[in-house]
Every structure is written in C-alpha cells, then in structure tokens.
Design brief:
The chain has 165 residues and is an all-beta fold. The protein has no helices and 16 strands. A four-stranded antiparallel sheet has the order 1-2-3-4, with no helix packed on it. A hairpin with a 6-residue loop joins strand 7 and strand 8. Keywords: Kelch repeat, Repeat.
C-alpha cells in the first residue's frame, strides 16, 4: 500500500516460514532503496493492507504453523503508524479475511468476500472495519446467480462512494 508516496510491503512467505517483516520503498538523494521497518505483531500472508492518513491497517490473512505444514487463518487486525514506526493491535475479526480485496470509503475499510484457509470455503460476506469506532461488522453478500459467482478475488471499484464488483 502507498502512504505519502512511499510503497509499503508486509508479511508474505520467505521460503522457510510465514514472514512478519515490513519494508518501505523510499526515495532519497542516492535513488530508491528498501528500508526495513518494525515487524508485524503477527506473522501473516495473503492479508489485507490499506492506508488511511499516516496509518496502515493490516487485516486477517493466513500463516503456516511453526514446524508444520498446517495453514491457519489469522483473525487479528493491527495498525502501523508510519511516523512513529510502531504497530498496535486493533481488534480480532469474527470472519476470516484471506484473498479478498479492500475498499476504502471515508473512515471505513470494506473487505469483500475472500476465503478461509482452514475450511477451504469462500466467504460470502463483506466485513466492514470502522476506523473511528474501532469495530467490525459483517454483511452477507447476495449474488443474483449464487451457483455461478463466488466472492474469491472479486474486482472492485468505488464511484461516488458506491462499491461495484
């Protein structure tokens, strides 16, 4: 995600385990370079990452359990202050959020669909994170042709504060 013309990348997988690193692509007199930032509070991959003001919000994802091939859902949300270089736990999610697309509208981050690694099922809900209230709520997704459409990697657009997918 991008904050103040800087690209931030977090988590992922580093060939051995799920990562908790945070990198920032910064521009300086000597050109662009990757700078290591404070690590995530919880290791995660395939998560949602969205910015609002100088804060980066990281929601959900999955991780491989230590010394195991088992992959589990990560249901936490944490926030990164780009000025102080500090992570803060925000809340736990009721619904897994993996492989979904976020939409930022006003003080809300809306996560459309996705899947649960633990169950292998798609999530037929929108999870709405209220930044102001520091809370979430889930809204069911309704597709006109339920057997044909799923909410896995939906394409989204926001036009005049309405979400289209």
């Amino acid at each position: 995600c991008v904050v103040n013309d800087k690209l931030y990348v977090s988590g992922g997988y580093d060939e051995r385990e799920t990562a908790n690193g945070m990198l920032c692509l910064e521009s300086g007199d000597e050109g662009k370079r990757w700078v290591l930032k404070a690590p995530l509070l919880e290791r995660r991959s395939q998560h949602v990452m969205e910015a609002l003001d100088n804060q980066i919000y990281v929601l959900g994802g999955c991780r491989q359990e230590h010394n195991s091939d088992r992959i589990v859902d990560v249901k936490s949300c944490e926030t990164f202050n780009t000025v102080t270089n500090q992570w803060t736990f925000l809340l736990n999610l009721d619904t897994p959020i993996t492989y979904c697309l976020p939409v930022k509208v006003d003080n809300y981050i809306i996560c459309i669909g996705g899947c649960s690694y633990e169950t292998g099922k798609t999530i037929q809900k929108c999870t709405v994170l209220s930044i102001k209230d520091r809370s979430t709520r889930s809204v069911p997704l309704k597709f006109p042709y339920r057997k044909r459409y799923r909410s896995f990697y939906c394409i989204r657009a926001v036009i005049r504060k309405k979400i289209f997918r």
